[in-house]
Each structure stands twice: as structure tokens, then as C-alpha cells.
Write a structure and sequence with these properties.
By secondary structure, the protein is α+β, with helices and mostly antiparallel strands. It contains eight helices and seven strands, in the order αααββαββαααβββα. α1 crosses α2 (about 30-40), α2 packs across α3 and α4 (about 70-100) runs antiparallel to α8 (about 230-250). The mean pLDDT is about 90.
Amino acid sequence: MGAQDGPTLIGSVQRAFRLLEAVSAHANGAPAKQLARETQLPLATAYHLLRTLMHDGYVRKLDDGGFVLGDRLNSLSAAGATQSLLSRVRPALAALRDELSTPAYLTFYEDGEIRVAEIVDGPRTPRVDLWVGFEDAGHATALGKSVLRELDEEARRDYLSRHHLADLTPHTVTSLPELLRRIESPPMAPAVTDLEEYAVGTVCVAVPVYRGTTLGSLGVSLPVERQERIQEIRARLLPIADRVTRGLSLTI
């Protein structure tokens, strides 16, 4: 057999996408016959593809028989927007990683939870083993405490009322009054630290960032034997956090 001139394409996938494009062109929906005609597909093929797309949530059938886009596409669209957003700031995170020889982390406070949005690490700068999810460890991580510090008092107490202060290491603060005292008056403000509170042998530094009105945090982790660099790292984190905030805000 001779070499093919181009990539191998899956016809059924192409036909499904053509149908989705046709459905998207009709805000009030269109029947299968019209969609088949517009996409130049046999009616039986259009029906089979529409049933499959409807089963998986990519299209929805209206009471009058017309087809419109389904909710599954909305989630894909939102995920695509997030990916595009993060791609604009990933170079700054990679530069931070390379300059400080540390992994870089980005979180956002969304729907009442602190969630990791991006981690940029490498073979020489491995990430911390996330053995406990950040949603359950905001009190024990610099990234989480940075978010908590920036929240207003009502939002902060709401978060803490919904999250147990789990004892993750011998250094984790599990007293609410003590945690609030440390959050409200960190010695390196606006930077916040985690001194082996999430993982023994690891310290972290984080500062706040914003995506429009959405609060987040930018931070790095390093071995405890390098903690004498914390002041230096704080000095570099602050301008990079401003750069990340600008990059995130430009995409709003």
C-alpha cells in the first residue's frame, strides 16, 4: 500500500460535528429533516447521529420536534474558556518555576471552595504530593490561607464553619482562634506561609491574585531546608502576582 497523502479522518465524527454546527445555527431549534438537508446527510444517518448526540447530552429535542444544543456543550464551552484563560498566564507561572526552582501553583475561590486551577512543575521541581485535597486543607496551606486572609470576615467564617481544621501534620494549626490570628496578621503580609503544616518537609509561600472579581492565590513550595529563601521568594511573588492578575483580567 502506498503512503497516504493526509491524516486518517473519521467520517462519522466529521458528520456529527457538521450536525452540531447546523443545530447551533437555529436558536429556536430545527427538525431532523431540515438539519439533514442543510448538512447534506441521508435522513437515516442524521437521525442516528442526533439520537447519539441527544443520549450524551450534546443536543436536546424540543417538544415540537426541533433540536437545540444540549447542556453538555455548555460545560465544554466553560472548560474551554478556562483553558484559554490559563494558557495566558501559564508562561508567567513557568517563568516563576524556572527562576525560583520551585513548582508554581494557582488557585481560585469558587462556589465557596478553594480549588487548584493550575500547577506548573517539572522533573527538577516536583509538586507537593496532594495527599489531601485543597478543598479540605485550606487552613493548612499557604495558598488556602492567602485566600482566607483576603475574604471578608463573613465569607471567611462561612468557609471555616463548613471545613474541619484537620490535623494533617504536627505543625498544623487546628485552633480556630489561633488560625484567625495568624491569617489576620501574617508577618510577611500580604504573603502567607505554610511551614510544614500541609506536608512534613515542605514549606510554601503564597500571595493573592484576582480573575476579575474572583479571588485566588499564587504560590510556590520548597523543601524545608531552603526556607531561608522565603523573604526572597516573597519579593519575587508579589510582582509576578500582579502580572498574573493583569493577564487573568484581560480575558474577562
